[in-house]
């Protein structure tokens, strides 16, 4: 029953994250438009328009979206409705299966045992996420193939190549993360990031003085962001490739391309497409928080210490509950920060053509990911003989 | 957490998430039925086209480039998928995993080199 309760809590957090995602997308888009001066388009008072995108107000845009959903739906003559529906259901199931694996609430620390609070705790969670992400991407290819025009099919081929290339990079990025804790379980990866580490411990002991002693004693959070920074940087383009959707008319980014799908979409299709894209974005951000920012952990603060401090006053159950709530709050704050930074970065980076994207992945990012994997493997193997001797 | 609890939690999440996401379109469909327009019928539209000529319908150069991209990506992905079991083996066997890997890879590598040499000689 704990898992079912966690599912309800996680769903509430995801709903909040989706609203935050919509707000962040709009704010960042408008902020970048202000700096474009005369290139900024005119604002429409109401509704979605190609020439004049909608207004600032989130509530007004939400109401306009609901009003459009009520209109009579359209049916394009040569579209395959069945393929589109099946692809949407597969995509939704894959996304939901990926989201339930995220350890967003830490552990229940009452008593001696530590019980992970995850909706579904898989031993090979990291490998499951790889397969789920692949399924998500291929389901979206199916959505594109349901539009039977050549432009949409070109968009589908583009998406298929992008997903496969991104998956190769994604696997190479995830592999070093599993080396340290020697586990594919997401909870173990999070637990391994809770201890602080000294990044400058290797300074020679012969270097004496206050600055060197300070540098040697400096402690940083043991997040993978600091321990494997190159892995964290490579994770961003890999996830971008896996969650980017080549829409002909992208209402979130404001882009228009010929080779993309959704050209004839009605408001209902637009709703499902936008929801899927935002959920995928929230999924990737929560994965980044889990893998690189220690999930809901607070740097230099242990939940067990907090519980031990309060337990003599009110018993152990209430402090353990408070620690869990605090962890969930910290996770959400980190999620919002990652969403905001991700949106700002994606606004600042130029949109590449498909062949440019593949060339970048094949000739620059993949060799870098290989080098990173070899470096981390070598460091791990070299560190092994010294572990027992310390 | 055992597998039955995990399956139940997954089912609860999927069902609730499905209900939550379908609530808005469901409400819209309910409202649509109350409107004077005929319920359940969709407006049939012709697909969007950018002209009738062959050149406007498709761009072969672009398609070829995309096809090449797809093939490259499949090869890259197949190579990368081998990494995950490799990492697991490296963790469980340690340095001896490299010896095993060299024992497997080296004969294949020699045979491949020999076949390339034979091709070039012919």
Keywords:
heterodimer; A: 390 residues; mainly alpha; two-stranded antiparallel sheet; 7 strands; globular; disordered C terminus; B: 122 residues
Architecture overview:
The complex is a heterodimer of chains A (390) and B (122). Chain A has 13 helices and 7 strands. Chain A has 390 residues and is mainly alpha-helical. The longest helix of chain A has 34 residues, at 354-387. Chain B is flat. Chain B is mostly helical and 122 residues long. Chain B has 5 helices and 1 strand, in the order αβαααα. The mean pLDDT of chain B is 72. Chains A and B meet through α1, α2, β1, α3 and α5 of A and α1, β1, α3 and α4 of B. β1 (74-76) of chain A pairs parallel with β1 of chain B, so a sheet runs across the interface.
Shape of chain B: flat
Average the pLDDT over all residues of chain B and give the rounded result: 72
- Ends of chain B: how far apart? 63 Å
- The helix content of chain A, as a percent range, equals 55-70%
Which residue ranges of chain B are poorly predicted, with pLDDT under 50 across at least 5 consecutive positions?
none
Question: Main sheet of chain A, how many strands, which sense, barrel?
Answer: 2 strands, antiparallel
Structural class of chain A: mainly alpha
- Quickly count the helices of chain B: 5
Content of β-strand of chain B: under 5%
